[in-house]
Amino acid sequence: MSAQPHQRASTQAPASESPPARRDALTRSASLLVFVLVWHVAALAVESSTLPPPLTVFERIVAETVSLALPQHLATTLSRVIISFGAAMLIGTAIGIAMGHWRRLDLFLDGWLVLGLNIPALVTIILCYVWFGLNDAAAIIAVAINKIPTVVVTVREGARAVDPRLMQVASAYRLSRWRTFTRVYLPQLQPYLMAAARSGLSLIWKIVLVVELLGRSNGIGFQLNVFFQFFDITGILAYTLVFAAIVLLVEALVLRPLERRVTRWRG
Amino acid sequence: MLEIDIARKSYPDRGGQPHLALEALRMRVRPGEFACVVGPSGCGKSTLLNLVGGLDADFQGRIALDGQPPAGGVGFMFQEPRLMPWLTVLDNVRLVLGDDPGGPERARQLLAAMELGDVLDAFPGRLSGGMQRRVALARAFVIEPRLLLMDEPFVSLDAPTADRLRTMLVEIWRERQTTVLFVTHDLREALALGDRVFFLSGAPARVVLELPVRLDRPRSPANPAVQALQQAVLERHPELLAGLANAADDAIEET
């Protein structure tokens, strides 16, 4: 706290009591403001329906919210994101742990993993719709399949890095399997799980939109396609902004506090 | 009574060839007795503890505590403290407790007795090496073990810290009358702590000498009686203890 006394002295009295976090928040808001300003100026200069000014887009957001169209599509998309994210994390973690532990299984599945990592998302989506029909299950399976391989690769690294000496403590004291897993094993995987969750969320919500665009009749992706067909750029920007804001909020209100909590001991 | 009868224990070495670590090794430790095991580096002392502690079940022979394989109630202190860095001091000690209702209170009392009452909520990473070992010692005793296994637990500590920990260990041990199997390569430490000292040969290790120690407690490794006993042992068994004599000389030079 006393690391930067000279900087604090240069600000006014109330600010000198505030932690550096407030200054960081100020910088973040300034960056957002500049972004909106640049957008506004560019829209005025271009003067075209393909780049509506920010105010028009905000008005559209309000209108779509009042008509309940946006909240409904948003809820549909978010539930798809949550379910496929949860499924991908759970299945990917299980496979990653198993592959990190058993060399033979690792060798056996490694080829599949490379294939899974390199198949374009579009191909899995099309195949899932063809094989399982144009339904929600197919959509979620397609998204999960796209994400699982990257979770597996990350968690496998973590499983390989588990400290056998700490595992020996667990077995010397005859800890139950559950306690060993939750108190000794999982905390060692935690940084890897966190990395997988972070990259997972940003990948999944993009893929969910594609899945919706290709084969669903609701959700943000479906709406974007409708707007595209009518060349309604304001609509596209309105939905995109809201969705991006939600993702940022999840990052700031869920992931970051969670990470701070579980890494408290690193101090 | 702790009975150890190991016919053979081998494990694959780095080249994949079987390495015979222990052969025809026999020990008897009475209940409540503090037994020390000394032997040259790499002779298989840690392997022996892992077998007794049930960390390794792949051997020929029999290990029994009161007539049965030691299933639970065994405390283990390793060369490193091996605390969980993500658990607080108190949670590290509570980690090894079962459903025992008196456990949490016992954990606090033990930690307080080891002068760790002020750091219950600290994470191990902030503690000194000596403090971390005290936490590990509390963890070993909190389960009220029938048998305590210690694998050179005070190695790599400075001499005063190690002395203090030895004193603490002996105090708790006398209160609780736990059977202790303490492995070390330092003969003077063994003579200072043990009621009985087992000397192991180089690999494949077996017991080459069993020495009861009847000096009065408390005794520190710097105690003249302990030093005299060490000299006497080294003079009486020079060829058996060739590997140890060097280690002991090093220890003298350090102090």
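qc> Residues 49 and 233 of chain A are 7 Å apart (CA to CA).
qc> done
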